[in-house]
């Protein structure tokens, strides 16, 4: 298997060289001898990108120093201006913005190929899906050892244009992509291209079933979103492919779907289902600029560093002068000119640590059942948490739900006094419209994200939801509504804590916390002090 | 390489219809295409340029003025005559700086001749044409703010580095994106007249057709373009005809009431929904070569005109398109 990975990786690189229209390859492996060995096969002319690359470096721009020196406009060429392979190191760190820029470059013309080196450690950490979509291949070398490697001699390539592909094969590829649950139209296109390129690699003028098998395995396996059901085979199995590829007759395409699917299935990762659930849970979470970390009032200044004057960068004057100071005598002697002499290399740029403010949204159950048992304790806990929030300068919002609806008692604020007062005034009684409370909290969280805050929702309830969203007293519907909103919240990616204030842990609430992917803290007979300690731990201070 | 022809796009009828409608009546205000990866969003938008009838503009004018008297002084254009030119479709790349979008001091002139001159930006070039933003939901916030302002006022004002320039910038916004990667701010959403959601085709035959055409486009480009450019030209002629028909189109009181009732029932914010819906329905009627606006036209374009103007309901998993369709059923029967 490991050896097969290596073969596929080298094959992918060869195919890319034949047909740059394949977009590129994502190589998932930690830095090491295996990867280094593979990289020796990449063109030496390949230019390297890194995730923090600036737009200027990508697209080019004004070369200020050269322009000033020559007195003529000198434009600098960006990395994307010259066709050829690009290597993106630490691809898992590429932001959506960079991915989008590269995706456009790959889309526009077929002269760039991208080799993305994905060093992600967690399954969550991977190449941006937008970019992965535009790369035909994906190979995982993490289980590959140096001993497994075998050098593969490249065959002589025939001209790509002349490779023909039978029409029914197209249909077959699409059927297989469908069976694997691949929606995107790029996948079958890549499969066809790869089959062509593979045929060209072996100097064949027509795509054979062997080409097809390899192409499907290489381009479709990693995109699969479901495992195809193994069908009961009715037709006789096709003759072995190596015999078949020799005779260029018409009948070398009765390769059943099943055989092709098997080739793909052999490459499906074992943990496909886990990965899919993880993806599903994250769906809808993006780091688009709309919700970006922008409210950096308390951005901590970091040490300045050498850089170029560009849009949005601020010059650290002291740092620049300090960098230029030691050179003054030398420069004065060299230029014969008096006065302060600053070269572009001296420029230091200010940097700030991006850290957005946190908003704690307390969603407090003030229903009758809660009031009877623990409302006072819950209030006490919130007060303690408020004190901590104050120390960290977090924002706080307070949502209470009772009767038939939820109410925003306090919009996001930093005022401790006001929060305390509102909390003390909080009356109890009525039903438990848990869903409505969560909905209000969600609305607050969405607004906060838009303003650049990082929201965390703390739900304090005894969990016996009995009022549905539409205000009816329907226990069953209320539970369904709560679950549904929980799924929305999770998809949105908001951090949540569920604190069970009931007399004994409520299984329904534990289930809700699971749906929310939230920390669940059952606190039967706990005092406020312990409650707030647990919350502080769960918040991960 | 020329972009993939518009008419060769298989299926995705709503998206194609929306683009044709804004080509008929630019005041509808642009199209937003949202959908999954690999559904042909970008392909369609890039293909739009070939579909647009040419405009008359003064040669060399940076803002494509129709008449010589409208050419700004700073442009220093000597030509007086207007000539045919293709409708500008300007690509606003994600990495564009503010300078490039609004225009800024012409550095070459400043450095070499010591002159203070204005170098027009993308907004100037897009005047009287289209501004296309791929991955619009990933656009930097400060560029979005800038666009919102200009799209609203139709004028680009540059006050910086000792320059004080204002020039008209009326353009149709066309955007595409994948909603999974980030949301669009409601303010920007509102600036788009129509919005469509696209999904990959589910039937094998359709998918086969997509692949076949793409394959032909890549491997037999000349013949393929010849075949489909003719179809594109036919659409272009029909757009021109529809533009003429639009002026003669009658709108009955009854339809106006329909439109208002529909928007009320949906609770869309402001009156922009009504106006866009009406304009889109009229353009659709003109496209269909009908002489009067009827309920059927309104029903057809209601989803694309209204879907992005609803308040988001986090619990509605079906999406706002279904909500509009449902309300249309209820109100218009």
Describe the structure.
The complex is a heterodimer of chains A (541) and B (333). With 541 residues, chain A is α/β, with parallel strands linked by helices. Helix content of chain A is 42%, strand content 16%. Chain A has a six-stranded mixed beta sheet, sandwiched between helices. A five-stranded parallel beta sheet of chain A has the order 2-5-6-1-7. Chain A has a two-stranded antiparallel sheet with strand order 3-4. In chain A, helix 9 crosses helix 11 (257-265) and helix 19 packs parallel to helix 20 (507-516). Chain A is flat, with a radius of gyration of 30 Å. The two termini of chain A are 43 Å apart. The longest helix of chain B has 28 residues, at 221-248. In chain B, 46% of the residues lie in helices and 16% in strands. In chain B, helix 12 (295-306) runs antiparallel to helix 13 (320-332). Chain B has two domains: 6-52 and 87-198, P-loop containing nucleotide triphosphate hydrolases (Rossmann fold), CATH 3.40.50.300; 253-332, Helicase, Ruva Protein, domain 3 (Orthogonal Bundle), CATH 1.10.8.80. Chain B contains 13 helices and eleven strands. Chain B is of the alpha/beta class. Chains A and B meet through helix 3, helix 5, helix 6, helix 7 and helix 8 of A and helix 4 and helix 8 of B.
């Amino acid at each position: 298997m490991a050896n097969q990975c290596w073969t596929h990786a080298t094959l992918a690189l060869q195919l890319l060289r034949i047909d740059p229209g394949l977009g590129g390859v994502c190589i998932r492996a930690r830095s090491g001898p295996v990867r280094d060995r593979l990289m020796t096969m990449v063109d030496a002319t390949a230019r390297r990108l890194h995730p923090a690359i600036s737009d200027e470096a990508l697209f080019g721009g004004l070369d200020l120093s050269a322009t000033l020196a020559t007195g003529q406009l000198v434009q600098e060429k960006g990395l994307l201006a010259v066709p050829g392979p690009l290597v993106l190191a630490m691809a898992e760190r590429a932001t959506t913005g960079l991915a989008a820029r590269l995706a456009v470059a790959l889309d526009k013309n077929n002269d760039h190929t991208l080799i993305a080196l994905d060093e992600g450690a967690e399954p969550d950490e991977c190449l941006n899906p937008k970019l992965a979509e535009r790369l035909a291949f994906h190979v995982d070398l993490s289980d590959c050892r140096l001993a497994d490697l075998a050098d593969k001699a490249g065959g002589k390539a025939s001209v790509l244009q002349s490779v023909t592909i039978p029409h029914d094969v197209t249909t077959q590829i699409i059927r297989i992509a469908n069976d694997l649950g691949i929606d995107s139209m790029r996948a079958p296109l890549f499969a066809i291209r790869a089959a062509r390129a593979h045929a060209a690699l072996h100097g064949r003028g027509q795509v054979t079933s062997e080409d097809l098998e390899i192409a499907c395995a290489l381009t479709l396996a990693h995109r699969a979103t479901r495992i195809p059901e193994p069908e009961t085979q009715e037709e006789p199995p096709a003759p072995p492919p190596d015999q078949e590829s020799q005779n260029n007759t018409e009948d070398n395409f009765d390769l059943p779907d099943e055989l092709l699917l098997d080739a793909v299935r052999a490459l499906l990762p074992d943990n496909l289902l886990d990965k899919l659930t993880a993806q599903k849970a994250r769906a809808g979470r993006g780091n688009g600029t709309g919700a970006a970390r922008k409210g950096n009032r308390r951005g901590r200044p970091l040490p300045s560093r050498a850089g170029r004057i560009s849009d949005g960068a601020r010059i650290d004057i002291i740092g620049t002068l300090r960098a230029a100071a030691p050179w003054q005598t030398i420069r004065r002697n060299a230029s014969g000119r008096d006065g302060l002499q600053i070269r572009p290399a001296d420029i230091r740029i200010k940097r700030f640590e991006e850290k957005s403010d946190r908003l704690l949204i307390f969603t407090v159950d003030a229903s009758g059942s809660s009031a009877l048992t623990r409302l006072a304790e819950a209030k006490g806990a919130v007060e303690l948490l408020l004190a901590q929030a104050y120390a960290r300068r977090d924002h706080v919002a307070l949502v209470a739900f009772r009767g038939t609806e939820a109410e925003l008692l306090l919009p996001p604020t930093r005022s401790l006094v006001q929060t305390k007062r509102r909390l003390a005034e909080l009356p109890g009684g009525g039903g438990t419209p848990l869903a409505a409370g969560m909905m209000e909290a969600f609305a607050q969280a969405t607004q906060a994200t838009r303003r650049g805050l990082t929201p965390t929702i703390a739900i304090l309830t005894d969990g016996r939801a009995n009022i549905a969203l539409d205000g009816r007293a329907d226990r069953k519907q209320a539970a369904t509504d709560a679950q549904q909103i929980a799924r929305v919240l999770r998809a949105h990616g908001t951090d949540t804590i569920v604190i069970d204030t009931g007399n004994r842990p409520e299984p329904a609430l534990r289930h809700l916390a699971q749906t929310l992917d939230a920390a669940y803290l059952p606190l039967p007979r706990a005092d406020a002090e312990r409650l707030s300690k647990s919350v502080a731990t769960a918040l991960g201070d | 390489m020329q972009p993939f022809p518009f008419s060769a796009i298989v299926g995705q009828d709503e998206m194609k219809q929306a683009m044709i409608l804004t080509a008929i009546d630019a005041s509808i205000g642009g199209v937003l295409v949202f959908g999954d990866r690999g559904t042909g969003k970008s392909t369609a938008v890039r293909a739009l340029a070939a579909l647009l009838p040419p405009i008359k503009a003064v040669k060399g004018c940076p803002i494509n003025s129709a008449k010589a008297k409208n050419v700004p002084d700073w442009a220093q254009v000597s030509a007086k005559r207007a000539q045919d030119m293709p409708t500008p479709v300007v690509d606003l790349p994600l990495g564009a700086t503010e300078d490039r979008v609004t225009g800024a001091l012409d550095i070459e002139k400043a450095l070499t001749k010591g002159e203070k001159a204005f170098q027009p930006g993308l907004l100037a070039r897009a005047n009287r044409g289209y501004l296309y933003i791929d991955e619009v939901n990933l656009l930097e916030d400060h560029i979005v703010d800038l666009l919102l302002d200009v799209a609203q006022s139709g004028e680009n004002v540059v006050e910086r580095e000792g320059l004080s320039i204002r020039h008209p910038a009326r353009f149709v916004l066309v955007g595409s994106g994948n909603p999974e990667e980030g949301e669009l701010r409601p303010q920007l959403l509102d600036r788009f007249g129509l919005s469509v959601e696209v999904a990959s085709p589910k039937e094998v035959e359709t998918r086969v057709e997509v692949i076949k055409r793409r394959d032909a486009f890549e491997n037999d480009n000349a013949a393929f373009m010849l075949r489909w450019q003719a179809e594109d030209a036919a659409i272009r002629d029909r757009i021109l005809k529809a533009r003429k028909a639009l002026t003669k189109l009658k709108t009955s009181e009854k339809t106006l009431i329909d439109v208002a009732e529909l928007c009320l029932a949906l609770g869309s914010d402001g009156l922009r929904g009504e106006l866009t819906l009406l304009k889109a329905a009229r353009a659709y009627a003109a496209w269909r070569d009908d002489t009067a606006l009827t309920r059927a036209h309104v029903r057809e374009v209601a989803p694309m005109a209204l879907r992005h103007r609803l308040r988001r309901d986090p619990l509605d998993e079906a999406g706002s398109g279904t909500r509009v369709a449902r309300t249309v059923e209820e109100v218009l029967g």
